[in-house]
Structure formats: C-alpha cells, structure tokens
Amino acid sequence: MTAPIQHVEVAVVGAGISGIAAAIRLRDAGLDGEDDLVVLEKAETYGGTWRANTYPGCACDVPSGLYSFSFARTGRWSRVYGTQPEILAYVDRVAREHGLAAITRFGTELLEAAWHDDEARWHLTTSAGTITARFVVAAAGPWNEPRIPDLPGLADFPGEVFHSAQWNHKHDLRGRRVAVVGTGASAVQFVPEIQPLVEQLHLFQRTAHWVLPKVDARVPRLGQWALDRVPLANQAMGAVEYAAMEAVGAAFHHPQPLMRALQGVGEAHLRAVVRDRALREKLTPRYLLGCKRILFSNHYLPSLTRPNVSVHATGVDRVEGSVLVGSDGTRAEVDTIILGTGFHILDMPVADRVRGGASVDGRTLAEVWDGSPEAHLGTTVAGFPNAFIVLGPSLGSGHTSAFTIAEAQVRLVVDAIEAARANDWETLEVRPEVQAAYVAEVQQALDGTAYTGADCHSYYLDDNGRNSFSWPWPTAEFGRRLRFRPVEYTVTYAPDALQAPSTATSKEAHA
Predict the structure, then answer these.
(1) pLDDT at 1 over 80
(2) Do 412 and 474 fall into the same domain?
(3) Is residue 452 part of a domain?
(4) What pLDDT digit, counting tens, does each position of 229-253 carry?
(5) pLDDT mean over 370-398
(6) Please, how many CA atoms are within 13 Å of residue 92, restricted to the half-sphere of its CB?
(7) Residue 253: which CATH number?
(8) Total structural domains in the chain?
(9) Are the C-beta atoms of 51 and 20 separated by less than 8 Å?
(10) What does pLDDT average to over the chain?
(11) What range defines the domain where residue 194 resides?
C-alpha cells in the first residue's frame, strides 16, 4: 500500500549556511510543530559548500569575526581567517544546538518542485519520495555544483581527474606530474599546498588574477578565550574587521581612485614576490582590480616561482591522451588533472528543478530566466508563488560575509511567511512590475562600479553578458532594502478564511 504524501507548512531545501539560518529563524517564529517545517539535504551532514570543499588549504577569505551567525557568535577560531574544518564544525554545532537534527532529512535530494495552482501547494519530488508544502525556501546556494569544463578528450584521459570541490584524498600526489586547470579562489589556496609534493606542476591560467596579501595569523589560546567569553572583546574585533572589509567595499563602489590605490598593493606584492620578469608579466592582470573576485594569499605567488612549476598563460583547448594542449599550442604531459574551474554560480542547478504555475506556463526558473537570473531583492520571483531563494541573484559581494546576506534575506522570508499565516493569505507572489523595477535599479546602480570594469570577463556576468551576481550598494543597505513590504506582492486568501484580515487587505497588497 502506498504511503500517504506528507504535507508540511515550509520545506527548506539545503542545509548549508543559508538553509540553517532559515530553519532556525522559522522555528523561532513558531514553526516547530511536527508538520510545520522540514529541511531537505542531499548529503549526510550539514555544511553545504564547507562540507563539499575539503581540498588542502581550504579556508575562508572573510575574517572569522564576520563569518558566523549573529545569534551564535564565537571566538573559537585558530586563525584570523577560519579554516574549512573549523567552519564546518561550527556550522554543524549551531544546527544541532538549535534542534535541526529532528527536522532534517539527510540523504534526500530534491529532484523537482512543481507549483500546483489548484491546490496552492508545492509538490516536491525527492530521492526519498514526495511531499507537499505550502512554502518552499530554496537554500541550495550558488557554490553548490562544480563546473566541469567540456574539454575534448578529457573523458579519455588515462590518469586521475577530479574537481577541487570533489577532492580525491586517496590519490597520492607525491611525485606526480599534475596539471591544474583554473586559477580562481580554490586554486589560490590548494596550489601552495600541493606544490612541494608534486614532481611537476603545470598551471593553466586563462586569465591572470589580482592577488592581495592576506593579513592572517594564528590566534593564541588566550585570545580565543577572550574573544569567545568576553563580549566586548568579540564586538571590538568584529568592528575592526568590519571596518577593514567595508573599506574594500568602498573601493568597489568608487574604483577611481580607491580601487586604483588598492590595486597598487597588489602590484607591489607581485613585484616583491615574483622577481622573474617573464613570469611576472604572465601573472599581471590587464584589468582593474575588482571586476573579478579579489584573491587573498601570502603563499600562492611564491609557490609559482619554484623550479617544479610551469605557468601557462593560456586556457586548455583539448586533451590528447595524457597531454593537455593549450589554446596557444602549449603541451604538457601529466598523470593527474585537478580542475579549479569553479561552480555553476548563475546557472544554479536548483533553477532547473523548480517549476512555476500557470502564469509562467509551468516553466522552470531556468527557462523563465533564460540565461539572466533575476529576483526581487534576490529572493522572490514572479510566477513562483510562496517560494523564496536565499543567496539568490544580484546579492553577491566581493568583500562581505555570506552570513550577513543570508540573515538579511531570512528575515524577509520569515516576515513574509508570518504575514501570510497571520492574515490567511493562501498565496503571495511578487508583482512582475515590482521585480522589473528592482532589477533595473540594480543594473543602473552597477554602472561605474568595479564589478562592471572593461576588459574583464568574470562569473559575475551571466550568459547574456549582464551582471546578475553583484550587489551594487554598501553592506548596510542589506538591512534597509531587504524588507518584506506587502504592497509589493499579489496575495490571495484561503477559501475558508472567515474574514479579511485587519493588518493587510487584498487592496493594499495590490496597491
């Protein structure tokens, strides 16, 4: 006999930073009944990107004092910049201390979420069966699915191939001839770790990146104790780190002359570390700092000067047997290929699995977006009622913490769900004209920032060449702008509602 389909009030998809923040705040808002809330996680543990990325040297590039939940501050970091094992342990501890283990279904992957207009419910098909939900919070995040390049011959490579986010720890790199394809944030961290082990390292660099020194150091145990137990110490350190990162943020928004000055630091660092003129020429970017993600490392550039490293200033065109052939004809014979080629940031896989209602002809988010993701306040999309995205389009920052963004969004999500429940709204959906106006405002605000610098192609740009990733305003604007305003939404009332709620009328919601 087929088991009945369970119905829940809210389904949260993903148990990384954003999913944990959403689930905790929803429970705080009173959604703690047996059928109120469920978290679906395809893996067997919490952590999201910090669970998946276990490559050598994996660490945060935002100071530890800023990289935590506002409701669970901690000073227990061994370094100024937290390492992957510490961050994973912290995220897992917070989730379990807030009781999320009881509502999390591990090993449960979302295969499809489809909105049914006639039921005003989401039908979620998962690897463990089907459930229905009144609201869906998509918190899978943009750093979820590794991007594997479509290189001719790669499938026939006779050696070992793996992505940095799927690190093969069983493959011993000692004495190997290794090719690293891609020089982004992950490669900057793992290359210095593997360079001393390998016989030969061939680094294929399609585009040079600016690398700034990382103001990192060990935090002594006494310092950890003070930051963890003395609130004023923790607040003071957080304020210093916030001010430092906001200075970087100001440079993004005022590239002339602030970003030029910051770029001077990168130029000086490169000159001081790389004495070979030919190599330095290869490693010098031809664009203004900031239009690609800024990288921080004290060890990456020095590692590239070692005798066993060859830097190829070219992308990879194809693989012929055990030989990688660069776009410029460069050839390198290796036995291991490590892909540091990033993630599906703007073409996030969850967009292919979420289907809207009749107003969008049942199309998926990906089909509606057609290469240019957009959402009102990065959170709600017209045609997808009762659905929210955390860490969605146009919220990316080159300098602040994902915790800051996620928590601001989660407040909006919780306020919206609370309003719907309190006012007997059956559905709420952002008005298309509101969404369009917001997207236009974002694009206008991005003009003149470092994010839109010329001569630079980054993952900030979508398939249509539009920047659908970056947040164009200061960090403080997250708190001011990311608010739930009923007038921006169309709502419908539940059929059994006895009377129109007093706090927000249908007319107000359409105004």
Answers:
(1) no
(2) yes
(3) yes
(4) 888 888 888 888 878 888 888 888 8
(5) 95
(6) 14
(7) 3.50.50.60
(8) 2
(9) no
(10) 92
(11) 154-339
